[in-house]
Amino acid sequence: MYSTNKPGSVPCACTTVKKLSRVLGRAYDAALAGSGVNNTQLAVLKCIARREGDPLSHIADELEMERSSLYRAVSPMERDGWLTITAGPDARSRTATLTRKGHQVVAKANTAWEKMHHQVIDRFGRKEWMALSAELDRLANCAEPPQDG
């Protein structure tokens, strides 16, 4: 069960969001269990599909992942035939493309993901989710270094 800090205390923003991420991650991973992919893998595959041909560094940036973490994440996906990795436009970059099998994995997992997504949003409230999502974006911007000016 998700718990918060003591009443009247100001909870750590980082710890609070990480705890929530773990709670949601477990729920989505449980929903995806029969699909053969976890929520992180699905997010990576969907991002690669959306940004086909983009360097993996751009995928990492969009997903707010360290590049080395993304490379470790895509390695088993390449091994399992879900995607192919090729040299990018310059010597240091690589791109990924979903294979037919990768598209099938995404399609199968998307059904379970959509069901879980709607369950969470419906229980929380669509309007409330949209407001919280905007506030989380604002919180993320607050963590960025201040702009000199």
Automatic annotation (TrEMBL):
Q: Name one Pfam family in it.
A: HTH_IclR
| Segments forming domain HTH marR-type | 10-141
Supply the InterPro entries for this chain.
HTH_MarR-typ, MarR/SlyA-like, Tscrpt_reg_IclR_N, WH-like_DNA-bd_sf, WH_DNA-bd_sf
Q: What PANTHER family does this protein map onto?
A: TRANSCRIPTIONAL REGULATOR, MARR FAMILY, TRANSCRIPTIONAL REPRESSOR PROTEIN-RELATED
What is the name listed in the Swiss-Prot or TrEMBL entry for this protein? Answer: MarR family winged helix-turn-helix transcriptional regulator
